[in-house]
Amino acid sequence: MSMPPRTLRPDVLCLSHLRWNFVFQRPQHLMTRCARDCRVYFFEEPIITDATEPFLQVTANGNVTVATPHLPATMDAGVVTQTLRMLLDRLMRDECMDQYVLWYYTPMALPFTDHLTPTAIIYDCMDELSAFKGAPPALKELEERLMARASLVLTGGRALFEAKRHLHDNIHPFPSSVDVAHFAQARRITTDPPDQASIPKPRLGFFGVIDERMDLDLIAGVADARPDWHLVLLGPVVKIDPATLPMRPNIHYLGGKQYDELPHYVAGWDVTLLPFARNESTRFISPTKTPEYLAAGKPVVSTSIRDVIRPYGQQGLARIADDVTGFVHACAAAMAEDSRARQRTADALLREMSWDGTWNRIQTLMNAACRQAAQDHSATGAAAV
Fold first, then answer.
1. Does residue 233 share a domain with residue 110?
2. 99 and 226 assigned to the same domain
3. Alpha helices in 198-351 (DSSP H)
4. Torsion of CA 121, 124, 127, 133, to 10 degrees
5. What's the pTM value of the predicted model, to 2 decimals?
6. Which structural domain, as residue segments, surrounds residue 132?
7. What is the pLDDT of residues 6-27, one digit of tens each?
8. Which of 107, 148, 199, 375 is the most buried (most CB within 10 A)?
9. Is the domain of 360 the same as that of 334?
10. d(CA 378, CA 349)
């Protein structure tokens, strides 16, 4: 008896403003899971080089194929879109991409992809990019065009969903999820990485991108108020001048770390921090690191970010303060708390927040969007006959 043919899933072509090998976050979590079932191509923003001709660097990263355009620094701005379109079309032809889903993280990719005819279009709006430092002026208009074309829209948090829910009739919130087993390693690790081992305790730590979203005055104020506390900051410094970072004997910048290294650092912290500024760039953020800190078994102290207050602050899993005095008091209280009670509450919440579960729910929506698009296409074809 012959087996029925396997249903062929469409490829996924992901257009991202974040580089695959930058910080391991939402795009990497979702695309690695997507790649278990289909081919995934991760098309990055271009790199400007001293090459004389444009080319596309294609590398395999696990089951994900990462494509990075390289453009000559001398290239006229007016031909960049045309060149990116040419490089992408060549990749799709070489890889025989006939049935595919376009998955956007950035509307800025629309000008060189709007000629394509995908099975469906998904816009994973993980941040309000137009509010970030250096955002291109065209971003808002391109997002409107992308929203109009999208089959399915996802948001990276509830605050962002509430701000955009009126813009699309198939939009769904998917706040930050967590790989609990990965970060729970921190509860068992007892040795420090070499560059952290000599830093005295207590240690208050942060990992993530250090950019315009950070409240640098707050960090400096906490360090000055408690010189016996040591602040450990992990992550790349981007979009801000490193010279503006507060320098104190008890502030330690250890640079960017690989995702696999993070539990080893967090294990040695007494408090984890979300010292975000309150400005337009943080208005809709939903920090992935909040559940990651909790999975590591650590108390969390944050400024008043909406998607941290709800649900974490409301459930007593994060202390919230915005000024130096309040933040210092919250950190001191976090170090004195009964960690067992907090961990029981956190673990119950985290069980419902796995990236695997999030991907399963997104995949169901994506499959439904593909089916609906196919039905719409059939109906349009029948009406034209």
1. no
2. no
3. 216-225, 262-266, 289-295, 306-308, 324-336, 339-350
4. -40
5. 0.88
6. 11-177+354-384
7. 345 899 999 999 999 998 999 9
8. 107
9. no
10. 43
User: Which stretches of the chain are assigned E, i.e. beta strand?
Assistant: 11-16, 40-44, 47-49, 55-61, 64-72, 100-104, 120-125, 152-155, 171-173, 203-207, 230-234, 251-255, 271-274, 300-302, 319-320
Q: How many domains does the chain have?
A: 2
Looking at the fold, whether 269 and 246 belong to one and the same domain comes out as yes
> Which pLDDT belongs to residue 385?
47
In contact, 259 and 232? CB cutoff 8 Å:
no
- What distance in Å separates the CA atoms of residue 130 and residue 134, rounded to the nearest whole number? 9
- A 10 A CB-CB count for 110 gives 21
Bridge-partner residues for 232, per DSSP? 205, 252
Q: Which residues contact 29 (CB under 8 A, 6 or more apart)?
A: 177, 179, 355, 359
List the 300-302 sheet strands across, edge first.
251-255, 230-234, 203-207, 271-274, 300-302, 319-320
In a shared domain, residues 240 and 130: no
CA–CA separation, 171 and 154 (whole Å): 6
Q: What is the CATH number of the domain that holds 229?
A: 3.40.50.2000
What is the rounded distance in angstroms from the CA atom of residue 86 to the CA atom of residue 53? 13
Residue 21 maps to a domain: yes
Q: What local confidence, expressed as pLDDT, does residue 351 receive?
A: 92
Residue 34: both structure tokens together: 């997507």
Cis peptide before 193 (omega within 30 of 0): no
pLDDT tens across 184-213, in order?
999 999 999 999 999 999 999 999 999 999
Q: Do the Cβ atoms of 229 and 252 come closer than 8 Å?
A: no
Answer whether residue 6 is part of any domain. no
> What is the per-residue pLDDT across 163-175, written as a single tens digit (0 to 9) for each?
999 999 999 999 9
pLDDT tens-digit map of 106-159: 999 999 999 999 999 999 999 888 878 777 888 999 999 999 999 999 999 998
Question: What are the φ/ψ torsions at residue 154 (nearest 5 degrees)?
Answer: -115, 150
Task: Name every residue whose Cβ is closer than 8 Å to that of residue 243 and which is 6 or more positions away in sequence.
Answer: none
